[in-house]
Design brief:
Blueprint: H1 2-16, H2 20-43, H3 49-69, H4 71-74, H5 77-87, H6 90-111, H7 114-150, H8 163-177, E1 181-188, H9 191-198, H10 200-217, E2 223-228, E3 231-237, H11 241-257, E4 268-274, H12 281-297, E5 303-305, H13 306-314
Parallel strand pairs: 4-5
Antiparallel strand pairs: 1-3, 1-4, 2-3
Length: 315
């Protein structure tokens, strides 16, 4: 939007000064900028025209400006370098800036005095390099902030921030592909007693160690959340009820045999529920929670799947 507002008067001035070719070029860029602004506002993403029309058109315009205006045209290279990094993905911005330098270098040596042309080329390269480094730092910081926002600091697992959207996405993917998806809801047994006996520092270590065991056993495609306190949730993609129950039991056994606290066994209980067509994720999660509650009532240190729970209750 800023580029649109700044460039529009220059497009008009080019026509007023009789520079019709530059006027047409700058007008096309203004129109594409306006389309970009509209698209981003209503579609919330950068349109394909930015990469395949706007950026190449800017490079063509810069070449024309070099030929007709000399050093005045060269000045437009600097905001163009910055605009590529703001409008495009990082890799695409590198490519477009390499193309820009490839056009600007011969134009600068042809239409400017040699000493001035060399300075223009070097400064364009410097602005491009510094811009690329700055954008890399900004992108890394944004990535870290996103990770901090969705990650539990103690366990390194996802927190509840992404839970709703992840469950909705799992639900949609399962319905669309027809592949089963299951929830595994886990809870540490007698965790309050651990905190009361050994202190909260040891309790935190237990949570961290159990989280390591969860990540070790589960697949990279599975999503694991710390729901809060001592409760964890795993979304098991492409996993039916029996498969999820087996995974849960293996985790249950793994935690039970791990020497997390010397002379004190640590165990978990869990509930398993496979997604049913037509249900919401809240209903799905509620069924897993009911199975977990049943596992706790049956003595803990066990995994209960919804099918087993139904048979046991009817007996």
């Amino acid at each position: 939007m800023a580029a649109l507002l700044l460039l529009s008067p220059f497009a008009i001035n080019n026509f007023a000064q009789g520079r019709n070719a530059l006027g047409v070029g700058s007008t096309v860029i203004v129109v594409l900028l306006a389309f970009n602004a509209w698209w981003i506002k209503f579609r919330k993403r950068v349109p394909w025209t930015t990469t395949f029309l706007l950026a190449p058109m800017i490079i063509v315009f810069l070449n024309m400006a070099f030929q007709r205006q000399g050093i005045v045209g060269a000045l437009w290279c600097y905001p163009a370098v910055l605009s590529f990094y703001f409008m495009l993905e990082e890799r695409q911005a590198w490519i477009m800036n390499l193309l820009l330098v490839g056009v600007a270098a011969p134009a600068a040596t042809t239409f400017l005095e040699p000493a001035l042309g060399l300075r223009v080329i070097v400064t364009i390269l410097a602005v491009s390099v510094f811009s690329a480094a700055s954008i890399r730092v900004i992108n890394n910081q944004q990535r870290r902030l996103r990770d901090l926002a969705v990650t539990d600091s103690l366990t390194g697992l996802y927190n509840r921030t992404l839970l709703d959207s992840s469950l909705n996405r799992a639900l949609e993917q399962s319905f669309r592909s027809g592949s089963p998806t299951s929830l595994l809801l886990l809870d540490l047994d007698h965790f309050k007693s651990i905190n009361d006996t050994y202190g909260h520092d040891v309790g935190d270590e237990v949570l961290a160690e159990v989280s390591v065991l969860l990540r070790r056993r589960l697949r990279a495609s599975d999503q694991v959340f710390r729901m809060g306190g001592e409760e964890f949730l795993a979304i098991l993609h492409h996993t039916d009820l029996s498969g999820a129950e087996q995974v849960g039991q293996e985790l249950c056994d793994l935690v039970a045999i791990s020497p997390i606290i010397p002379q004190r066994p640590v165990t978990i209980s869990g509930g398993v529920a496979t997604l049913h067509r037509g249900e919401s994720w809240t209903e799905w999660l509620k069924r897993a929670d009911e199975c977990l509650y049943y596992a706790k009532g049956q003595g803990r240190n066990r995994i209960v799947a919804e099918a087993f729970r139904g048979v046991a209750e009817s007996a």
